[in-house]
Amino acid sequence: MPHIDVVADLNFEGDEAGVILARVPAAGAPAVGTILTAGTAAAWSRVRVEAVDEDGWLHVRLLSGQWTG
């Protein structure tokens, strides 16, 4: 399992298909365009940050994923 940069529910899609919402991590908001690993130990995906809201939400696009179980 890779290091998880952003803990996220990969099923929590916003208004656009393939874009999920996640809370900004305690380490701070990543820059738009940054590639991260988001999800949990059981299901994770490489994502690209599409937007960062002022109220603490990241909009990230799923790029690839790995599910265990």
Describe this structure in words.
- The protein is mainly beta.
- It has one domain (6-67): Ribosomal Protein L25, Chain P.
- It is built from no helices and five strands.
- It has strands at residues 6-7, 19-23, 35-39, 43-52, 57-67.
- The chain has a five-stranded mixed sheet, with no helix packed on it.
- The chain is globular, with a radius of gyration of 11 Å.
- The model has no long low-confidence stretch (mean pLDDT 91).
Main attributes of the structure:
Ribosomal Protein L25, Chain P, five-stranded mixed beta sheet, 0% helix, 69 residues, mainly beta, 48% strand, single chain
Q: Say what the CATH topology is.
A: Ribosomal Protein L25, Chain P
Number of strands: 5
Runs with pLDDT <50, length 5+? none
Q: How far do the termini sit from each other?
A: 12 Å
Order of SSEs: EEEEE
Mean pLDDT: 91
Shape: globular
Q: Which CATH top level class fits?
A: Mainly Beta
Known CATH architecture = Beta Barrel
Radius of gyration: 11 Å
Biggest sheet character: 5 strands, mixed
Q: Which strand order spans the largest sheet, edge to edge or round the barrel?
A: 1-3-4-5-2
How many DSSP helices? 0
| Overall tally of domains | 1
Helix content: under 10%
Helices and strands in order, then pairings?
Elements: E1 6-7, E2 19-23, E3 35-39, E4 43-52, E5 57-67
Parallel strand pairs: 1-3
Antiparallel strand pairs: 2-5, 3-4, 4-5
Short description:
This protein is 0% helix and 48% strand.
